[in-house]
């Protein structure tokens, strides 16, 4: 029923049959984990344990443990928050936006990308919660709960509160979208299993039987969820950018922030998807499903979003000059030539120059080059947030209070903690959940595989 | 529940053969109980004659509920219960209430629709599905025909129709 142009690259190579798809993906869940997995998992858990020392110290002593001062009141915490949220955006982009655009290549990567989204958002949400200082009271500050002060409600005029709603909606809708997609695949594993595994995956599969009527509803739900998730993902980073854009700090108070933050989010998210998928496909021998073609397409998204980000940097500079506002002009000159020049130029090199290498086909189809550049991009995107946040704050309107920000061990440790958490969760996902959406890959197999099944 | 139910199963390997088979079986007057497939097949619901899902309507209604709740909550708290001037804005700062309004619309639409989907398709962790053929979550399409619903038809005739429509196997299935 599906017609695909013969000039299109096959999405699944190696003459896979439907049963091969089931087997290749399920065996990762069913088999004993490899030494490599244990090593990777233990490393991640080790980083988590190490980072938790810093987290506990921060919670015990308060956020005075961090390198913040009177002038720079926001630094690594919000940088890491924006960075992690941004990474999360690629998962939704792949699963929702590419679904709406009927891009079939999404099917092999959407499961892992969505998992990455969920774990990245968990890591992101930790930072504002920790920054509350006393997070066990935080529900009263973040949610409109009745209290004994009146009730004195939370401030719905504040972008920080919009963030609470945006991030929690984003997290829960992504989780539901991801889980709906997992149900048919859990049923596949259930039907291959015996004993305890059958019971566990039976419960996880919610009694899925693959009836045509259920599939019809499933398709309907997927489409509507994609339609809801698309404006949602754009709204999330837009609202994150409002945290800055609605303020009156030179360097933050710009209308370009929402689109520029969203493009940057997709840029860093695709880079993280590439980092994770290049390793996953190798370790799990999934090269026939996540092909060079997939990597090339993701690299093209990186060129596009990287170029948008580059244009945004230049536009910001132009507008600062064109506005004629002295403070605004100084903020930008200070970024490029002030004491944080090295952060600015790291950002420029990593985000604007390095992705342009992907114009060369040899580089964008090379696994090694893609892997290295994907990490470079994420380093660059971390610096972007650091530059925006710290350089705009450290020299404010009052030269007598100009200061520098120096991270303490607790700053580094809490950041490490989220790294440990992210990778621990991702490795657990990769072991116990099917990393590729089997049902969706099967659905495109007939029209898009190298050798269609007779 | 259906102790004496007895099913004939047609096993198909190819989605396009299955689509034509469903048309053929139905045009021969055989009532199909349900078709079980390992992945969604576009057009299957059409040839089976299923009505379009009304889940989008549920999503819309839940979304409306979300908007209403969010707006009511914000106007009540910010404009009536404890009005305050913040950032020079009006007590009823409508533009500032749009982001939360949007997020709650999406939240309720998504959760409401998925909840209705779960209930209508009987998806729950403790559900015990009736599996006609274990390969229907792997690589085979299973067409189940309930004999009780086709009492006017001869069994052999049904099997013949299935065979000629491209079924690679024809099995019998009963549930305890």
Automatic annotation (TrEMBL), chain A:
Keyword Chloroplast annotated: no
Keyword tRNA processing among UniProt keywords: no
GO cellular component: plasma membrane
Chief location bin: membrane
Topological type in the membrane: Multi-pass membrane protein
Subcellular location: Cell membrane
Transmembrane parts of this sequence: 36-60, 80-101, 113-133, 160-182, 221-240, 260-279, 300-322, 342-360, 367-392, 412-433
Signal peptide range in chain numbering: none
Alphabetical UniProt keywords: Cell membrane, Membrane, Transmembrane, Transmembrane helix
Membership in a protein family: Belongs to the NrfD family.
Protein name (Swiss-Prot/TrEMBL): Quinol:cytochrome c oxidoreductase quinone-binding subunit 1
Species this chain originates from: Algoriphagus alkaliphilus
TrEMBL record, chain B:
Organism of origin: Algoriphagus alkaliphilus
Organism domain of life: Bacteria
Organism lineage string: Bacteria, Pseudomonadati, Bacteroidota, Cytophagia, Cytophagales
Record has Glycosyltransferase as a keyword: no
Protein name, entry field: Quinol:cytochrome c oxidoreductase membrane protein
Transmembrane segment boundaries: 57-76, 96-120
Coiled-coil intervals: none
Protein's UniProt keywords contain Repressor: no
One Pfam family here: ActD
Keywords of the record: Membrane, Transmembrane, Transmembrane helix
